[in-house]
Amino acid sequence: MNINDCYNFEDFRKLAKKKLPAPIFHYIDGGADDEVTLNRNTDAFNDCDLVPNILNSVGEPDLSTTVFGRKISMPLFLSPTAMQSLYDPEGDKASARAAEKFDTIYSMSTMASFSIEEVANISSGPKLFQLYIHKDKSITDDLIERCSRANFDGMCITVDTLVAGNRERDHRTGFTTPPKFTFDSLLSFAMRPGWVFKYFTNKKFELANIKNKTDKGTNIAKSVMDYINEQYDPAMNWKDAEYCIKKWNKPMALKGVMSVEDAKKAIDIGCTAIMISNHGGRQLDGSRSPFDQVKAISDAVGDKLEIILDGGVRRGTHVLKALAAGATACSFGKAFLFSLGAGGQKGVERLLENMQKEIRRNMVLMGCKSIKDLDASKIIYRN
Amino acid sequence: MNLKDCHNFSDFRKLAKKKLPSPIFHYIDGAADDEITYARNTSAFDDVDLVPNVLRGVEDVDLSTTIFGKKLDLPFYLSPTALQRLFHYDGERAVGKAAKKYNTMFGVSALATVSVEEISSLVDTPKMFQFYFHKDRGLNDSCLERAKAAKFDVMALTVDTITGGNRERDLRTGFTSPPKLTLSSLFSFATKPMWGINYLTKGKFELPHLQDFVKEGTSTNSSIGNYFSTMLDQSMNWKDAEQLCSKWGGHFALKGVMSVEDAKRAVDIGCTGIMVSNHGGRQLDGSRSPFDQLAEIVDAVGDKLDVICEGGIHRGTHMLKALSLGAKACSGGRLYLYALAAAGQAGVERALEKYKSELVRDMKLMGCTKISDLNRSNLRFRR
User: Fold this and answer.
1) Number of domains, chain A
2) How many domains are contained in chain B?
3) Residue B7 is among the residues annotated as catalytic for this protein
4) Is A17 exposed, middle or buried (0-12, 13-18, 19+ CB in 10 A)?
5) B117-158 tens-digit pLDDT
6) H or E segment to which residue A96 belongs
7) CATH code for the domain of B90
8) ipTM for the complex shown
């Protein structure tokens, strides 16, 4: 199996599983507790059916939309994800280049393995920065200022990681960053010499954006969960978010909003967007899926801010359903991380090409000329 | 396993799988994307229960129904499907003769492998011609004139194939028409020698309705999805359908209507029927199933044209449920294609006999003696 055999999410996932050491694969693949929310994120789309219109002379549909003040070529972009160089040595650079090629957003995590400046230097495509509010305010301020200078288009504050989720697969595999060779995981690493070779022959693993501010997560083996618990500010509140929005003064989203009430508050503090997300089912298991919740939120605030549906998206039809239910665009993390692990930049490009083709094909089959045509009349919920 | 062991849909499917090279089997058996719509087409029937009436005196059951002005002995007919001689060397000849024997209608596809003229000389019972709207207007006119001259009773314009569906099984097996022996499929062809011998000795494979106009699908290898995407006219609109309808001048249906709005427009342009269909789940995955959508459409237009429920039907009881909701008749492709592949005309006849005896039995158990006895009071929806 190689990257040219990958037609869908499951194919990329399989290939990534072959290529990545087990602890790293399961870090991407796993969710919190029993992974009920993880599964529901995708299953939710199947409780809703698309209803096409015929004989509409659609021709070539226009897939473009505008989010965070930037026009992007399709209503789907890459979610911010941490430590991408664990999956491919080029990490964030590979994702950013692939996203730029397809004229959609690349998002950088605070915990990226390349710095804000390094990625800004190699990509002029649309860029979003994901901000964790740290206990040490100077870290937060520094990140905002650097993003401003590097001309990032938008920013999102992650609000669903006040404490770390219970990712039991990581407990079992001993996933730490940088990876620690425990007896349990050694075999899995040893069986993937390609990964090990690339890991040790490329730039030293680091959390490039925060390496000078903290010694955590850089030179000692430290689990991500411990990092989250120690560095992120669990006392973060609406005032802190508002402070960041004012300081940033460009399009800003809260990532991880799930209730209508919080969506309304997001407007009040000056957000231009929200990302409806449960962190890919990796935080609070049993929480509601983004697709199950998007209609209620869109009905309440859809005319006042942009709504990004983040979580469970694997197919072009999922994007169409999300948009018909009121989302402005979708973003995905797992799908593109598997493609990155499976084939680096080429893998992400193939995934984005597949998704673009699917969205285009499905728009044509729906009889839609532009994504504005996707409204509530195009879907029916089964009950 | 042989034909006399086939008692239901799934038995015919199993036998077909044994007889056909795998790319050809999976072309019939597969559907779009994750095949969620394909599965729902059948499982939708399980969300509704039949409620029988007793003590009604049901010794004589009349299964006849009238659609498109023709009285059929059965309340279901055989949908037009492409490339039938790939499945059995007799192809459309076998299907047509079986349909004639049971006095029901059968459809001949524009992508048929036997000509309308030959079919017409073999079969004098009701016939439907399925029309694809090609970019080449000369081809369109030729199809229409030939079907008219061959005295076909109904013209059905397919409206859900504006672009090819994403049939991932075909991507993997390399299914093309005529079949191409690639390394990966060679083994499968080699292990089914009878299919190969028949294919090579029982007359040249051709697409008689197209061959004077296009090279696709005749001498060169082309996938069906590719054919839809490159040969059909994506700008097809209501005006085109209306013109075709009046040019034809007889019974005219749109195949692939799913929304109430489109069903109403079909009435306006002079259609005498519509097939509520998603192309057997082979085009837009995530789209609504015909049975889920049937009641709404019947309520809107059921008194103005014949509503046919097409897709997912495996059982007599499925037909009873659709007819109870108000469909004038049911139709299906896989319904008889596996049987065709399993044993040619004898296979299709056995399938028709099985469905007919199921219908008679189930009508009696329901306390009904004629199709018009079926109505919504026979049904309870589970939710």
Assistant:
1) 1
2) 1
3) no
4) middle
5) 999 999 999 999 999 999 999 999 999 999 999 999 999 999
6) helix A91-101
7) 3.20.20.70
8) 0.86
